[in-house]
Amino acid sequence: MYTGCGHRSQTQQHVTLGATKEGKLTLINHIGTSLTSLFDDFVEPVGAATIMMYACPNLEIKYRLARINADTPIFMRGPGEAPGMFALESAMDELASALNIDPIEQRLRNHADIPNMEVQFIEEHDPYVNALRTKSLGELPIVGVAAAISNAVYHATGKRIRDLPITPDKLL
């Protein structure tokens, strides 16, 4: 029964991170070992996302493949990037804790898509700020759910709805 539906490859990962006292990454070493059958070359790509996630001058990703007398593994509930990201992000959490840096701040300092920039705050009167002098809290980039649903409706029906809620009568 179990040979027909495949299984996720058993993996072992070793992640080593190096950073400055300020939390800037200087080294990422991600080694993944996965098991495969005697007759196939299935490799769980645990380091595939590591290449893209964080800007780091010294990056090394290695894959090791061990052959065992078992069926060939397949992707299960997502590709191998999922367990690879779990290992990398766990290591980032441990690094942030060791450096006494907020984990989100640690990620933002090293995010591959964020260039180095200087931020300057300019004092000005804003009548719309609240008692804490904020308009909103910053968050990591995410796609707005309402906008995504609106775009999906547009692609499915060809009709653009620009106000909420989206109801059937607006589509007719």
What's a concise summary of this model?
The protein is an alpha+beta fold and 172 residues long.
Give a verbal description of the structure.
With 172 residues, the protein is an alpha+beta fold. Helix content is 28%, strand content 17%. The chain has five helices and three strands. It has helices at 50-53, 81-99, 103-110, 145-157, 168-171, and strands at 11-19, 25-36, 59-67. Strands 1-2-3 form a three-stranded mixed beta sheet, with helices on one face. The protein is flat, with a radius of gyration of 23 Å.
What is the topology?
Elements: E1 11-19, E2 25-36, H1 50-53, E3 59-67, H2 81-99, H3 103-110, H4 145-157, H5 168-171
Parallel strand pairs: 2-3
Antiparallel strand pairs: 1-2
Task: Give a quick set of tags describing it.
5 helices; 172 residues; 17% strand; three-stranded mixed beta sheet; alpha+beta; 3 strands; flat
Overall residue-averaged pLDDT value: 81
Percent helix: 25-40%
In what order do the strands lie side by side in the largest sheet?
Answer: 1-2-3
- From N to C, what is the helix and strand string? EEHEHHHH
Intertermini distance: 49 Å
